[in-house]
Amino acid sequence: MTDLMISLCAPAELAQVVALVNAAYRGQDGRSGWTSEIGLVDGVRITLAALRTELAAAQDARIFVLREAGELLACVRLDSSASAQVQMACQIGMLAVRPQAQDRGLGRIMLQHAELEGRSRGARLARMMVVSIREDLIAWYERRGYRRTGEIEPFPYRDAPFGHPQRPDLEFAVLEKALIAGSDPQGHGDAA
Q1: 168 Cβ partners below 8 Å, 6+ apart?
Q2: Is 69 left (phi over 0), alpha (psi -120 to 50) or beta?
Q3: Distance CA 104, CA 101 (A)
Q4: pLDDT tens track for 114-130
Q5: What is the CA 55 to chain-centroid distance, rounded?
Q6: FRET partner for 153 with CA separation of 20 to 30 A, picked from 49, 70, 94, 174?
Q7: Are 181 and 192 spatial neighbours (Cβ–Cβ below 8 Å)?
Q8: Nearest 10 degrees: CA dihedral of 173, 178, 184, 185?
Q9: Strands 125-131, 88-97: parallel, antiparallel or unpaired by DSSP?
Q10: In the 8-state DSSP scheme, what is residue 52?
């Protein structure tokens, strides 16, 4: 992994990011990785038009890409937000690794990069939403220090650009991780 390079996504790279995210989440081209939502949601995970609209509406959204020898292998999105306890937080999303490049630790590398970037912006917490029935994926995040907050967000059942849900019980579990010593993602005062 000596040729790995993480950089800020350029506008011209957004179409490649969309293809990567759709391959990782929805198993495009018959390949599915461990993050696949096949059987849960059909259709594309994101469109280029939807991503451009989201980025234009966001004040400080950034997408980071990881390339090896020029090939796009992974991405992650980082936004600012506030936690339920009104602490400065960063929202991590769209973490995706090309299915044929999984099991190389690239997801962990991108997650750590997003956390470092969030911390450098003053975030005390990292937050994310994961489909609540994705127990293996939630367990992966928990092994990296994330904890369920108890908050649940509704799944966008009527948002066709997000895909076509195949189950009636989809919702998002909110996960948090303290990025700075003394930040308690559960809101119990000083964690130090």
Answers
A1: none
A2: left
A3: 7
A4: 999 999 999 999 999 99
A5: 15
A6: 49
A7: yes
A8: -10
A9: parallel
A10: H
Residues 6+ apart with CB under 8 A from 72: 13, 16, 17, 20, 65, 66, 98
pLDDT by 10-residue block (mean), the chain, 192 residues: 87 96 75 65 86 90 96 95 69 93 93 96 93 91 96 84 81 94 51 34
Distance between alpha carbon 118 and the CA centroid of its chain, in Å? 13
Residue bearing tokens 């949601």: 41
Q: How many angstroms separate the CA atoms of 116 and 108, rounded?
A: 12
The ranges assigned to domains in the chain are: 4-128
For residue 180, what is the DSSP state? Answer: S
Tell which CATH classification among 3.30.200.20, 3.40.630.30, 3.30.70.240, 3.50.50.60 matches the domain 4-128: 3.40.630.30
- Write down the pTM of the prediction: 0.86
Scan for tokens 């005062």, then name that residue: 189
Express each pLDDT in 18-49 by its tens digit: 999 988 888 755 455 666 676 778 778 889 99
Residue type for position 152: I
